[in-house]
Give the backbone structure.
Amino acid sequence: MRRALAASVLLALTACGAPEREEVPRAVTDESWPTIPEGAVFGQVSAVEVDSHGHVFVLHRAGREWEEPFPAEPIAEPTVFMFSPGGALLAQWGAGAFVMPHGLSIDEGDNVWITDVAHEQVFAFSHDGEEQMVLGERGVSAQDDAHFGRPADVAILGNRVLVADGYVNTRVAEFDRSGAFLREWGEFSTAHGIALDEERVYVADRENARIQVFSHEGELLETRVSRDGNHTYGLASLGGGWLAAVEGRDGADRTGAIVRVYRPDGTLDRSFDVGLEGEGASLGHDIAIGRDGYAYVTDVYGNRVVRFSLARQAD
């Protein structure tokens, strides 16, 4: 239904003289990556991250699709897959833990942080999936020091846990590593993704069609408005002020998957299309960068993870 709506919106925009569809080079992707074993239940792919060993963690919904109101029962199948750099499935966990898993991040100790927008909670797990800490009260939505409003993503800055909060709330909520609330800051319309580098915090302010850039102390430094009102979904730091982002296409048509690479001064360096052919076939949702230069993009509608080499695309 949502895909049909997106197509109808595109037709309406075209009739109203909206900007023509942007043409960008198509990324050369690794079609053989990853290998999903026969019998494994895979589904809407929400998030991706790479650990210090080069393992690629993929968060997916194992056959469940985003439908509201959210169901009450957790997903019975494993929702966290860990792949080798070559694409072999090495481990899977998370069965029975989540209702609508959304964001996944990995800290410097290879602990795994996951948000669940239905549970209204943020979870910290060991590398092997042992639950270590839970933030938020299950099923309760509020914007205060003990609750979330559909938390979307997490970034870890030293002893600080930064939560992009979220679909309902309008902030970054900050905690220490013990779970104690520190403060909140920012003003967003769907803080959907958050990323860090040596000096900055980047927030995908999705419904405002922009990326907001802050200091580590939460001071707003810069606002980057997306081309044609495109909605930015996911962010990944390349280091040194370079930033990669994945966004939808052409403003109100939120489907598709465009990867942007921004220079440290905020100007656009290059763009790639990683979506499937056809309107509503893809929705780029998250992006991660491995130390080997490979970019990984989750495609919610396409039920897939796309891998391609940023270095080779640049050449």
Q: What stands out?
A: Residues 1-15 have pLDDT under 50 and may be disordered. The radius of gyration is 18 Å. DSSP finds two helices and 23 strands in the chain. The first helix runs from residue 2 to 15.
